[in-house]
Amino acid sequence: xxxxxxxxxxxxxxxxxxxxxxxxxxxxxxxxxxxxxxxxxxxxxxxxxxxxxxxxxxxxxxxxxxxxxxxxxxxxxxxxxxxxxxxxxxxxxxxxxxxxxxxxxxxxxxxxxxxxxxxxxxxxxxxxxxxxxxxxxxxxxxxxxxxxxxxxxxxxxxxxxxxxxxxxxxxxxxxxxxxxxxxxxxxxxxxxxxxxxxxxxxxxxxxxxxxxxxxxxxxxxxxxxxxxxxxxxxxxxxxxxxxxxxxxxxxxxxxxxxxxxxxxxxxxxxxxxxxxxxxxxxxxxxxxxxxxxxxxxxxxxxxxxxxxxxxxxxxxxxxxxxxxxxxxxxxxxxxxxxxxxxxxxxxxxxxxxxxxxxxxxxxxxxxxxx
Length: 370
Ligand SMILES: Cc1ncc(COP(=O)(O)O)c(C=O)c1O
Fold this sequence. Notes:
This protein is α/β, with parallel strands linked by helices. The chain folds into two domains: 13-107 and 114-247, Aspartate Aminotransferase, domain 2 (3-Layer(aba) Sandwich), CATH 3.40.640.10; 250-369, Aspartate Aminotransferase, domain 1 (Alpha-Beta Complex). The protein has helices at 13-33, 40-53, 64-74, 92-99, 118-123, 144-154, 206-215, 237-247, 250-267, 296-305, 335-343, 355-369; strands at 57-61, 82-85, 103-106, 129-133, 157-161, 169-170, 173-174, 181-185, 199-203, 220-222, 225-226, 289-292, 344-347.
């Protein structure tokens, strides 16, 4: 196999070529209408996502972090409240709890799928616990059946961090429809990504919908009437126009991601590489393809030597981050997360990745391990 194969971590240029005509025409229409904020594309996109995810409401916001902050605030989280979440995620998950004065409480993850472990969640409940914030990490749905059962027993809310998992399914249920509120990011690297920043919340609850719509618009209860100090969090019209085009093709795009993942898995068969599990009867969205192996750093170096990018998602659990030192966690408290931080390596995965590129990556890894 040639040593000159290029494997970018993400390549949006081909996608842009395919979409550019439709998107440029949508930009042109937006310009002609002269409506750049809160226009017809934003409204239509919210309706279309609610229809796709299967919720009564979808509320667009400026990014995925805002989606989390607004959902948690709308559900009443404030100083003194604990929210149980995953330590194995992007920082924004826990940061959203802290931003509004709550305390993140970290439970351990499951070995196979890197998602929150319901048994560990149960052990973390105190009389200050207000809710649970599972993360569908890398595109794998968290165990929502078990998490919702715990929440029901203890009268807690559940918010899904679905930033990396648009269109993933637990059984027949699409993530974002499986709890009080689902939070999405449309950052360009996401399964459904725009060409800038964007985010959205899905919910079946009228009260949550109303609260979020008020909070995202400066806490306004009516034009120029402010009931609370809120935020300015808006998805813009041009991003919404692009997202509407991409939403029409999302199932095809995620099927291609699954095809790439299948090629990786069969190439790694009978090797020391542990491949990600796929949900039984559901759907993995494969925002990232994260493998684990004992000699992770040696493998990463071998990939770097061939200019193949990979990513350490995530090299240090959030419970051990400097910013959360005061919470008092130490190495060994969440052993499955600690182990994942040492062994996990995320590989390129996107619809346009070719089998030739995948084979080049796996061959490099397998020869480093032999
Ligand atoms: C799991 C997770 N949660 C939240 C976020 C925050 O999303 P955004 O970057 O759109 O604010 C991200 C994105 O990076 C993420 O991966």
